[in-house]
Amino acid sequence: MGDNGDPREEYGITGNPRRGLAMATLSFFAGLTTIAFYGVAGPTFQEALGISGALLGLLLSSPHISKVILRVPFGAWVDDIGARTPILILLAMTIVGIAGLVGTLVLFYPDDFGSHLYVPLLVFGILAGAGSATFSVGIAQTSYWFPEDRQGFAMGAFAGAGNIGPGVFNSLIPVLIGIGGLAIAYSAWLVFMIVVTVLYFAYGANPYYFQLLDRGLDAEKAKGVAEEMGQEVFPAGDTWDSLRESSMNHWTWVLVFLYTVSYGGGFTALTTWYPTYWNLFHDMSLTMAGLFAGVFVVYGSLIRIPGGSLSDRFGGEDVAAVSFAVMVAGAGIATFATGITASFVGMMVLGTGMGIANAAVFELVPKYVPDAVGGASGWIGGIGGAGTLLVLPLLGVFVDVFGEIGYARGFSVIAGLSAACVAVSVALKFVGPDASGAADESAMH
Q1: Structural element, H or E, at residue 162
Q2: What is the CATH number of domain 1-235?
Q3: Which end of the chain is more exposed for a tag (fewer CB within 10 A), N or C?
Q4: More confident of the two residues 312 and 28
Q5: What number does CATH give the domain 237-445?
Q6: Cα(first)–Cα(last) distance of the chain, in Å?
Q7: b/e per residue, 412-436, with b = 16+ CB within 10 A?
Q8: What is the pTM of this model?
Q9: Model confidence over 263-311: pLDDT tens digits?
């Protein structure tokens, strides 16, 4: 090393865990806003384009297509080169998508706006949604920055603060549309995304191990120096090694199931469902329905932060079991509630369980898949995020079968899935890595 023995100066290392968490969270906050890319102005686009409800539904879901497709490979890519380049590419794709929409609005809206623009708008939506894949990338980056005993806190802070993005923009964009129209509103979104990308380019840094690889050190030497600087979690291979190894680890798929129920089939599904639920089942105005749904989004996101700290303190398995039990209780209340007060209580109990469960699941990733955190994060974030596409149709079936009361009875789906997750979480205490390790140690004695 150098004369003062400081690896930072000798190898030109930048960044630290706190800054790494802040920049990963900022990129995720900005990128995730695009899952609501067309939703905030859905009726306006439907009327202007003259399209059917089915085509509108496809347009609204276009950002989710790239979210599901890109989270897996980009999350795994972190194990190869770190998160900086993947995040910048995803943000750049998002900028291209938003810029395409802004240009289309400036050139054609409202006079020449019609169904002939549908396919380009679909493509712009898919590109814009790329930003939401920053979730699996940021999860992996955050995991490599922080020691094992602070994984829960770090994951909770990252996901908790980052998940607020869609709720903020769902409230902000309609106001901007009212003030200046569609082009102005989406232009403001574009400027915001560009600013975030520039900030990440300037201040985002890979964890020490990846920076040392970039300085020319071999993997063994880079790991040794990074360990001296405090890094504890390391990848075992490159992108495809990470994907392959994590996919062959059965614990990855257990975590995928838990996350699918708590997030994709839970939190994200209800984020989309609640505005309709409050509007049509409780006869609220769209403004009030959106406000109630917004409370659920913000609260359920922020509670991830203490949920992560709880997971560090008490263990992810125990916290997951309790939080999924809380989800069972919340869904049970919502299933039978017909009044606004009881329904609101059910919603908040659900938000509590879902937020804490989300944090608990990712606290378990480095423990259960320690050699392929990026790959596991990709599978969990990608497939788990697709749970929305399964649960939302099920909720709709309950309305078709039972009529108006089906809006409440549909929560029984969440209750049943949550109960299964309670059983799985409890079982992990007896068959998980810690349990098997304890058994091996007992056998040795």
Answers
A1: helix 151-162
A2: 1.20.1250.20
A3: C
A4: 28
A5: 1.20.1250.20
A6: 43
A7: bbbbebbbebbebbbebeeebeeee
A8: 0.74
A9: 877 887 787 788 778 888 999 876 787 778 888 888 988 888 888 888 8
